[in-house]
Amino acid sequence: MNLLPSFPLPVHALVVGASGGVGGALMRCLLDAPDVERVTAWSRTALCAQHPKLSVRSLDIVDERQISAAASAIVQPLHLIIVATGLLHDGEIQPEKTWRALNAEALQRTFAVNTIGPALVAKHTLPLMPRHGRAVFAALSAKVGSIGDNNLGGWYGYRAAKAALNQILRTLSIELATRRPDAICVGLHPGTVDTALSQPFQSDATRDRMFSPEVSARHLLSVIDRLSPADSGSVRSWDGSVIPP
Ligand SMILES: NC(=O)c1ccc[n+]([C@@H]2O[C@H](COP(=O)([O-])OP(=O)(O)OC[C@H]3O[C@@H](n4cnc5c(N)ncnc54)[C@H](OP(=O)(O)O)[C@@H]3O)[C@@H](O)[C@H]2O)c1
Fold first, then answer.
1. Is 206 a residue whose pLDDT tops 90?
2. What residues have CB less than 8 Å from 138, skipping those under 6 apart?
């Protein structure tokens, strides 16, 4: 059964962050779909996956020269671009519980991966979309990036970087409407998903409502397929509902 019936056939998709939990599941869903002819996968950690429809490339999303070189190697047109990279924690960065933990280097790195990287991917890949006809650029954001919905506090850098990403996506959508009137640019919240990113924060309560990466990927692709140009600039949750700015 076709995965993306609203798209013109055959679909060419790009997944950025294909070594991640959600990004990898998105890549596998797209490779399995009969209506998807070609999948290009970019990842920082090299992929061992092999498939006749798959082209892979390693890059760091904070390095614009690498993004530009990878984009110039892509076979056009690109109908679907999904940016599934993100950073909440690593060996050095932990989400801040208090303002006392705010640190310039950690904030810069968090913004570089969560906000600047997706913006640079958009800069180099939106021109590869068809001039007319359906095309979607989606970047994975997070519900905690909603300013209106922030009642818990904490996670300063990650929240702020995702809020800034949402503003970048909104601004891209306004320019995109003038250049590619049928194209759509959105942010997507994948739900709470069982991946390396969420692992340190999982509890018995969250585990009950946590998705596997495969289930989240199927929800996200279904939301993408149902989007219309009027939805461009919004941030949508895994069930299609709007996340407030
Ligand atoms: N999991 C959740 O519950 C949840 C909830 C809300 C939102 N999200 C969002 O969903 C997206 C996917 O997250 P996930 O759960 O799949 O996390 P994940 O498994 O940790 O994957 C993150 C991906 O980002 C890549 N990445 C990080 N820094 C990079 C860089 N400088 N250059 C290139 N790639 C880089 C990682 O590459 P490496 O493999 O090389 O490290 C990995 O592929 C993120 O935007 C996240 O914020 C996740």
1. no
2. 80, 81, 82, 83, 185, 186, 187, 188, 220, 224
